[in-house]
Structures are given as structure tokens and as C-alpha cells.
Amino acid sequence: MKAGVGTPSPSLGWSGSTLHGRSRFRWSEFLWSLIYPTKNHRIMPTVPGLVLIGLALGIGSAAYNTASNILFITLSLLLTCLILSGVMSWLNVRGVCWRLLLQPPARAGQKTPVTLELWNRKALLPTYGLWFELTARPVATGPQRAEATIRASSAEIRAAFSRIEQATARATLPLRERLDPGGQTRLDWLFTPQRRGVVRVELASVGSLFPFGFLRKNHGTRLRREIIVWPAPVEYRFTRTAAAARQAEGERVARPGASNDLLALRRYQTGDSHRLIHWKASARLRQLMVRQFAAERAEGFFLWIETPPGGWPREEQFELLCRFAATLAEDLFTAGRLTGTAVNKEEPLVIRRVRDLESFLDRLAVLELPRETLNAPLKTDVVARMRRNVITFAPEGVRGVAAYIDGEKTATT
Would you list the DSSP string of 308-334? Predict the structure, then answer.
């Protein structure tokens, strides 16, 4: 796929070693970069490279001891191979730009696609044999407290690093085909977030063994993107039929529907049922008229998430609360019965469109238990703005979560 018109820029998410244009080459900067390389830039010899270096040292010692021109020529050829390998590896990576494309929303426990787009800006040289190391790890969103680790044992420190490593997803994407000058390509990765929150997807490094495999070059990058992970859906069951009985008789609204209240008369259209024809009005107006009834509006519900200090002592139940509230909100929105949501003392959110529901799910994704006691009572700030059918949540037993409507338990997980 050929590149489009224009130059990649950071505003479009592109990143690379030569993104800001071609700078003037300076030998001083080049030599200093060899002595003190940029962070995360590494050039390490591989096993064949170590063998070649050892062979060069042996031939060099023999050449100086014997003063043989043939051995000196052989030594120069070996050193030339090492130098040529480094230069060609540098040219192979130079001029390549990359960017990460994410497709929100992401769900905990479900596969999330990540696309790495590549652009070879070189005019003459193609690019071969690159690989890209990607990582995805959760990011802490709330305020963090400083904790001293002086008294921590080595086992506790290793366990902490092990938990971080287990929560981190890694992948290596190889460039299997040649990337022609001015061409673009895409590499796809599917990773599965383990839990809700904010996940940072980062391009850790770009590696290459090109051309001979003597040197392993890693080019560090600072390319990273963050994505919000919504809570995973959870199964729940209704325990009472009081809520269903409360919705049996809905309010009438002035729009077409299928209730028993007559809204208006209109002209007959192809496809209308003959049972809806109003014969007396048709005879009087000398054209077919059909009856149009009013629609029934089902009673809506308001979700209220309370997380007072000490109200959810078990972390597993709190996570289940977020999953239960997200699943119930989506089901009610699909049925057209979700009027609004609120979290603790925050301003209630009126749900009218999909974007409002997504905002609530984004809030649930980063919801955390407060560390301090709330200053004002919750109901004073929120309940005054709510209508009836307020759904609240409370722990049930050791592991479960129950939903209540006006004090009556309606659903449980």
C-alpha cells in the first residue's frame, strides 16, 4: 500500500527517528552517540557475532606474531563485515515511522485489536527484517500513596514485581515482508485485558538482525497510547416480580404506538391492517382513513452507585459491583428504560443517547473506593434530583451483589 500525500507528523500519531525532517549530519554527534547512546538504544552481538569477534581476535594475534599479509587481509575482511553490518542495520531502521491505532471501547476479558502502522519514508532503500515489541499494562488512575520498601523482604519485592509482570501483556510482531520505499503496511495484535481500568499500550522497542545477523540492534521508542477498559459483563437473575408488575401499565405519550388510546386518524397507506380502518370517517371523507393509537412509555430506572468507605470491604465484591452495574445499565438502555445514573455525590448523568451511556461506563472503568470519609450525606445531594425506581446496590453474603429498587431486592449476581 502506497503512502498518502503529505508528511507524517506527531499530530497524526506518527513517531520515528527522522520524523521531524532530515537534520544535518555531524560527525561529533555520531561519535558521541556511539560512546553514550540514547536511552533504550542497544547494539549487542549475537552468537555468530561473538564467534566472528573471537575469530578476528585470534587472527589478529596471529597476524601480529607472524607478520603475514594474508592474515592481515583476512582480519580486515572480518572487521569490515562487522562495520558493514552495523551501518546497514542503522540504514535499515532509519527513515521508518510508526504509530499505534486503537479501536475503543475495550472490554475486560475480551480481545482488543491493536494496529501498528508502518511508513517507510526512505526514497531508495527498502526495509527488511524488523520486529516490534509491544506491551500492554494497567495504569493506576487514582492518587497514589508513597510507601516505604525499606522493611520489605526480598520475597515481597519479588512478589510485587511478579504481579506487575503477570498483569502485563507482551507481543513481538515481525515484519515478514519487504517494506518498499514510500510504502505503508500494518501489523495487528490482539490482546485481552484482564480487568477494568486504563491500559497503556506501548511500543517498547524496534529490533533488527539485518543484514548478516552478527549484531542485534534495538531501537527504543516513546510511542504509547492509553485506552479505557470497561468492566466485563456478568450474569444476573431477577429474584422478585414486583419490578415487572410495576412496569405493566406505562404512561401514554403522544407518538404512534399500539396501546388502546386513540391518538389521531390518518390516510390509509399500503401495508396498513384493514382492521385499523375507520369506516365511518372513511365514508364521511370519501377516502380510507385508519386509526392511529398512542404508544406506551415504559417506566424508567435510575442507577445509583454508592461506594462509602467500609461499605465494600472485599475487593472482589467491589469489582463485581462495577460489572453488575455496567451490565444492568446496558440492558436497561437497550430496553429504553434507563433514565440516568449517579456515582456517590457526583452530579447525576441523564442518559439520552449512546454517548451518555459510554460516559457512565468510562466512569465505572476507573471507579475506586474512597480512602476518606465523605463530608456530606449522599442522599441529600443526589436523591432530590432522582425520580422513582432508583436502583441501588449492596453486598450480599461474602461474594454476591444485590440490586434494590426502592428498598426491595430485585436482582442478584
Answer: -TTT---HHHHHHHHHHHHHHHHHHHH
Return the number of other C-beta atoms located less than 10 Å from residue 98's C-beta: 21
C-alpha to C-alpha distance for 64 and 21, rounded to whole angstroms: 46
Residues 217-255: tens digit of each pLDDT: 888 888 899 999 999 999 998 875 444 444 444 444 444
Residue 72 identity: F
Residue spans per domain, the chain: 1-7+20-230, 251-297, 299-412
Any idea which of 39-53, 147-161, 389-403 has the lowest mean pLDDT?
A: 147-161
- What are the Cα distances from residue 104, in Å, to 15, 63, 198? 21, 63, 12
The three three-digit cell numbers of residue 135, written as one number: 506491551
Query: pLDDT for 318-336, tens place per residue?
Result: 999 999 999 999 999 988 8
Q: CA 350 to CA 335: how far, in whole Å?
A: 16
Burial-class residue 4 by CB neighbours within 10 Å (0-12, 13-18, 19+): exposed
Give the number of C-alpha atoms closer than 13 A to the C-alpha of residue 396, restricted to the C-beta side: 17
C-alpha to C-alpha distance for 76 and 82, rounded to whole angstroms = 10
Angle value at C-alpha 346, between 345 and 348, nearest 5 degrees: 110
CATH architecture of the domain formed by 1-7+20-230? Sandwich (2.60)
Alpha-carbon torsion, ordered 310, 314, 317, 322, to 10 deg: 60
Largest separation between any pair of C-alpha atoms in the chain = 124
Lowest mean pLDDT of 68-72, 181-185, 290-294, name the range: 290-294
How many angstroms separate the CA atoms of 379 and 46, rounded? Answer: 66
- The whole-angstrom separation of Cα 26 and Cα 329 is 60
In angstroms, rounded to a whole number, what is the distance separating the alpha carbons of residues 182 and 180?
A: 6
Range in 161-165, 189-193, 252-256, 317-321 the model is least confident about: 252-256
